[in-house]
């Protein structure tokens, strides 16, 4: 499914790609805009979605550029209708590194919130009415979008950013696998609760589906971590046995007694 993507361009050496279903999202929002306000509505809705996803790319670049500092290869950032996904060749086992890489994404959103605030104060603070399809309304929407994106990603649901931050904090005290197990358990409890809130309280079905999806992804990542840990353990034990065997080879051997014919 993730193969159905279109490569756009490279940014800081990272391929930016967009999933084919993203075009469907643009078409849906464009149509909604056109129904509400004709051509102006269509243009505004499509433009807003594009700007919103520019913020998503900046969020993913926050993760990616921090990861690159620690020698992690980032081949691609993929944009999906539910958000972005930076693909790493590995996740650092050092909790402090995972903590910084993960926190860098929401930090970009909060930085954008701070930068956009002076530009969108009219609508937000003074509660002034701004024209529907205006630059001021766009800035207001982007301010809200970044605030929601930053807070939403910090929910402690593994493997979302908040869940990874929780795992990294736990891994400062616990073994990595145990920390992952706890983070996945917290996620199993909270993800269905957040899904219910999204479906029945907020009426955000897309977000509800996202939480249910996260529930399975979190479990899959715990199982993958478990498998990697077992493989590491297996190779460590083999390496130990090899070292022991070669040490025994180095030990002085008793003289070989050759029994000759008596
Ligand atoms: Zn993130």
Give an overview of the whole structure.
This protein is α+β, with helices and mostly antiparallel strands and 262 residues long. The protein has two domains: 1-153, no CATH class; 155-244, no CATH class. Helices cover 69% and strands 9% of the residues. The chain has six helices and four strands; from the N terminus they run ββαββααααα. It has helices at residues 20-69, 95-124, 135-153, 161-171, 176-201, 205-250, and strands spanning 5-11, 14-19, 76-80, 83-87. A four-stranded mixed beta sheet has the order 1-2-3-4. A hairpin with a 2-residue loop joins strand 1 (5-11) and strand 2. Helix 1 (20-69) packs across helix 2, helix 1 packs across helix 3 (135-153) and helix 5 (176-201) runs antiparallel to helix 6 (205-250). It is elongated. The termini are far apart. Residues 254-262 have low confidence and may be disordered. The structure holds zinc ion. Zinc ion binds at residues 59, 63, 105, 153, 161.
